[in-house]
């Protein structure tokens, strides 16, 4: 029988059902993002767009199941809901500030879109029996199906570089030793930046060049017991120093995003390199380059974050070297 617009439309979804679906979605997301099997999907469309859209859609069905209230609620309540969820993730589950800062700029708009879609579906005449219930269940099933698809078919690896430079008022001979060993870095050294002063990425405390099994290895320590190693692959005194990163434990991961390893299935921070160029005025140009590989369907967005985060760390390291080199040369 055809639907008669003069008749009352089918009833909106039951709020108890919607609340149950929202709870199941949140529990499923927490479970998925703590299982290594789904690691390929941690930086995909599901994690950054579909999951928050589903949360916003379900929040809209709780707030306005019939789509009769002002559309302002589609902007307000999903935003408040996500801010509450991220606060719980940060204070209760120890989620890192870096992860939260990366997802919120996409999560909030995606949640708003999801809420608007739910409102649109609620306002238009539903012509299929039980369609309201089917629409609400779809907000649970689609994200989980997309996570599974991205796990099975991840995108290809892409190589990216981040480079920062500093001009130091000192000869290369004064700068070169500081690229090999940087002991006893005080907390006041370096420069202020967003990544370390706002997001809380630890600052370096020392770097030491050692010999291990006949190979040169620079061991780096940061605050909060973070450590990693750099296996030297290029050594041209006064000209260039290159290395391959090695992460012997998860200390870096625990202070950035504990879901994504710096040497894992989505991200591999691979190599670093200093290049020194002697300028004609007795100054030295120091160029620091980091190469990493990443695979994600949100490449442009996450590459932007890589440029910010790694660039801030690089800028801080160069500021420390610059100050110490100029002081050694009698310029500071």
Key descriptive features of the protein:
Alpha-D-Glucose-1,6-Bisphosphate, Chain A, domain 4; 2 domains; elongated; 9 helices; 332 residues; 46% helix; seven-stranded antiparallel sheet; 7 strands; alpha+beta
Protein model, in words:
The protein is an alpha+beta fold. It folds into two domains: 137 residues, no CATH class; 171 residues, START domain (Alpha-D-Glucose-1,6-Bisphosphate, Chain A, domain 4, 2-Layer Sandwich). It contains nine helices and seven strands. It has a seven-stranded antiparallel beta sheet with strand order 1-7-6-5-4-3-2, covered by helices on one side. Strand 6 and strand 7 form a beta hairpin. The chain starts with 14 loop residues before the first helix and ends with a helix. The N terminus is likely disordered.
Helix and strand topology:
Blueprint: H1 15-32, H2 45-63, H3 72-91, H4 97-123, H5 131-152, E1 158-168, H6 172-180, H7 194-197, E2 204-212, E3 215-222, E4 226-236, E5 240-246, H8 251-254, E6 267-278, E7 284-294, H9 299-328
Antiparallel strand pairs: 1-7, 2-3, 3-4, 4-5, 5-6, 6-7
Helix pairs in contact: 1-2, 1-5, 2-3, 2-4, 2-5, 3-4, 6-9
Detail the poorly predicted runs: 1-7
Q: Give me the Rg, rounded.
A: 26 Å
Strand content: 15-25%
**How many independent structural domains?**
2
**Spatial arrangement of strands, main beta sheet:** 1-7-6-5-4-3-2
Mean pLDDT: 90
Order of helices and strands: HHHHHEHHEEEEHEEH
CATH domain fold name of the largest domain: Alpha-D-Glucose-1,6-Bisphosphate, Chain A, domain 4
* Multimer state: single chain
């Amino acid at each position: 029988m055809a639907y008669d617009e003069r008749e009352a439309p089918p009833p909106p979804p039951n709020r108890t059902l919607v609340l149950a679906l929202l709870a199941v979605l949140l529990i499923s997301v927490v479970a998925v993002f703590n299982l290594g099997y789904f690691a390929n999907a941690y930086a995909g469309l599901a994690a950054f767009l579909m999951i928050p859209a589903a949360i916003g859609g379900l929040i809209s069905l709780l707030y306005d199941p019939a789509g009769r209230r002002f559309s302002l609620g589609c902007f307000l309540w999903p935003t408040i809901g996500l801010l509450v969820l991220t606060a719980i993730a940060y204070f209760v589950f120890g989620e890192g500030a870096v992860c939260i800062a990366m997802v919120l700029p996409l999560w909030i708009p995606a949640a708003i879109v999801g809420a608007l879609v739910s409102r649109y579906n609620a306002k238009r005449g539903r012509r299929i029996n039980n369609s309201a219930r089917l629409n609400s269940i779809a907000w649970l099933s689609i994200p989980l199906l997309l996570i599974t698809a991205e796990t099975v078919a991840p995108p290809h690896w892409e190589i990216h570089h981040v480079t920062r430079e500093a001009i130091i008022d000192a000869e290369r001979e004064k700068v070169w030793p500081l690229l090999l060993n940087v002991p006893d870095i005080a907390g006041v050294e370096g420069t202020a930046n967003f990544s370390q002063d706002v997001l809380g990425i630890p600052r370096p405390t020392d770097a030491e060049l050692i010999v291990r099994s006949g190979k040169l290895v620079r061991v780096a320590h940061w605050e909060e017991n973070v450590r990693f190693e750099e296996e030297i692959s290029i050594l041209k005194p006064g000209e260039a120093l290159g290395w391959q990163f090695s992460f012997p434990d998860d200390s870096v991961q625990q202070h950035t995003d504990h879901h994504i390893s710096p040497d894992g299935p989505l991200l591999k921070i691979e190599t670093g390199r200093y290049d020194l160029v002697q300028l004609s005025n007795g100054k030295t140009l120091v160029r620091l380059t980091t190469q990493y590989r990443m695979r994600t369907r949100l490449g442009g967005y996450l590459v932007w974050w890589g440029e910010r985060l790694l660039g801030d760390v690089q800028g801080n390291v160069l500021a420390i070297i610059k100050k110490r080199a100029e002081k050694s040369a009698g310029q500071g």
